Amino acid sequence: MANRTDPAAKSIRGTNPQNLVEKILRSKIYQNTYWKEQCFGLTAETLVDKAMEIDHLGGTFGGNRKPTPFMCLVMKMLQIQPDKDIVVEFIKNQDYKYVRVLGAFYLRLTGTDIDVYRYLEPLYNDYRKLRLQLPDGNFSLTHVDEIIDELLTKDYSCDIALPRIKKRWTIESIGSLDPRKSALEDDFEEEEEKEEEDERNSELDNGTHEKDYYRGRSPARERDRDRKRDSHRYRDRDYERDRDYERERGRGRDRDRERDRDRDRDRDRHRLRDDKDYDRERDRLREWEGRERDRRDRRRRSHSRSRSRSRDRKDRDGGEHRKRHSRNSTSPRRHGDGPEDEPKKKKEKKEKKEKKDDGTDHPDPEIAEANRLRASLGLKPLRP
Question: Phi first, then psi: what are they for 337, rounded to 5°?
Answer without folding.
Answer: -95, 10
